[in-house]
Amino acid sequence: MDIPRHWRLNKQRYTLTGEVCPHCEAKIFPPRDICPECRDEAKKEFEFSGKGEIYSFTDIYNPPEGYEESIPYTVALVKLDEGPLVTAQLTDFGDQQVEIGMPVEMITRKLRSDGDERGLLVYGYKFRPMVNA
Amino acid sequence: MKNKVMKPARSVGIIGYGAYIPRYRLPATEISRIWMGGMPVEPILEKSVAGMDEDVVTMSIEAARNALARAGVNPQEIRAVWVGSESHPYAVKPTSTIVAEALGITPFTQAADLEFACKAGSEAMVAAMALVGSGMGNYALAVGMDTAQGKPGDALEYTAAAGGGAFIIGPAEESLAVIEGVTSYVTDTPDFWRREHQKYPEHGGRFTGQPAYFKHIINSVTTLLDELEKEPADYEYVIFHQPNTKFPHRAAKQLGFSKTQLEKGLLSPRIGNVYAGSSLIGLTAVLDGAEPGDRILLGSFGSGAGSDALSLLVTEKITTRRGKALSTEEYINRRTEIDYAQYVRMRRKITLK
């Protein structure tokens, strides 16, 4: 039963909320309460814009348990505009090719079902090609 | 007696609006190719289909984020999140709490899921009007969203689509469109239903027309016009529930509205029937192009059956707010065509175990 774990991650998964270091201004994601840049305490919440670009990516054909339904899919390292690298699934590429440097934006999608069709639905961030506003 | 129009104690309107349409499209010719030998029977051109990682929760979140971006209000001041749909992902556990959490509206808010076939979205809007209009809260979020179910081979498979709209209702003085009044016309009419644990809905064929769709819309709209002392010519735009292309055209004609008034908000030929979001997403498309001073009439319909008719007056605030999120047309143009095989996989009609 992963229910408490999923529940604790709601905020970072739904809104891409991390932290900002009060000492050196570094933006931190996922939140870890200690700044990876200056090693000082960093507990101030910071909501990321969700905009970034693809730093690297790989296609998944042999998925871990719980992700079988949507193969093949692409997992990317996304460099957020504010700095941190985030690992996430890409989605909604349609016929578009994934390329390093492509601008992407965060959206909230269904990640998987925790267990079978009776289980909790887990929602969180994925990234899609930027839709021009 | 002229007392059927509902108006809140304090005047309210739409502060922000947002649409969402998934990017996949299934042309009607594909369904006909599989089930009708390619015979031209298409009630629409194509319908929108949700991706495998999309459902009413994720789609409502995106539409509501668009509405919030346009409204520019603090989400902590929203006192209700009401999501109308007939495809909530859980039988028990609210869609609305997940939407509220994702938008930063929790914890001091009302949250509930509404169900009234295709009328659940406008039902949520009217409830939001009441909450704000009574002064219980300053803002309320109303969503109509669906990933509609159509039985393979059935007439409804051509149109059952995915998408919808979200609206933040607030005080009239902050509104981009003031709601002048609403009439609701509801009877027990069994034109369409889905029983518990059933995957696909049943419908009454031709019974869905005259005694259901037309009777309810015509009664709600004519009563609203009569009591507000308005005529079809007073409106720049009219939007009806759009289960296909034909019904809204016929309703417009019967009520004395022109094709020009109807066309801007008639999206079903290009995206299908998005059920609880159908008339609402039509309204988002109209607001994208409306000018201050324009009057808009919305007539929703939900099977079972009922219709809400709303009269709206657009204010000058529309001009600065509409550009703050993706337009409905931009979502329609974000289009990837799929074939019937991809469709049955995406809609989980292939049994894997």
Descriptive report:
With about 130 residues, chain A is mostly beta strands. Chain A has one domain. Chain A has helices spanning about 5-10, 10-15, and strands at about 15-20, 25-30, 45, 50-60, 75-80, 85-90, 105-115, 120-130. A 5-stranded antiparallel β-sheet of chain A has the order 6-5-4-7-8. A 3-stranded antiparallel β-sheet of chain A has the order 2-1-3. In chain A, β1 and β2 (about 25-30) form a beta hairpin. Chain A is globular. Chain A starts with a helix and ends with a strand. The mean pLDDT of chain A is about 95. With about 350 residues, chain B is an alpha/beta fold. Chain B has 2 domains: about 10-175 and about 325-345, Peroxisomal Thiolase, Chain A, domain 1, CATH 3.40.47; about 175-320, Peroxisomal Thiolase, Chain A, domain 1, CATH 3.40.47. Chain B contains 12 helices and 14 strands. Chain B has helices at about 30-35, 55-70, 95-100, 120-135, 210-230, 245-255, 260-265, 270, 280-290, 320, 330-335, 340-345, and strands at about 10-20, 25, 45-50, 80-85, 110-115, 140-145, 160-170, 175-190, 190-195, 200-205, 235-240, 295-300, 305-315, 335. In chain B, the strands form 3 sheets. Chain B has a 9-stranded mixed β-sheet, sandwiched between helices. In chain B, strands 3-2-14 form a 3-stranded mixed β-sheet. A two-stranded antiparallel sheet of chain B has the order 9-10. Chain B is globular. The mean pLDDT of chain B is about 95. The interface of A and B includes residues 15 and 111 of A.
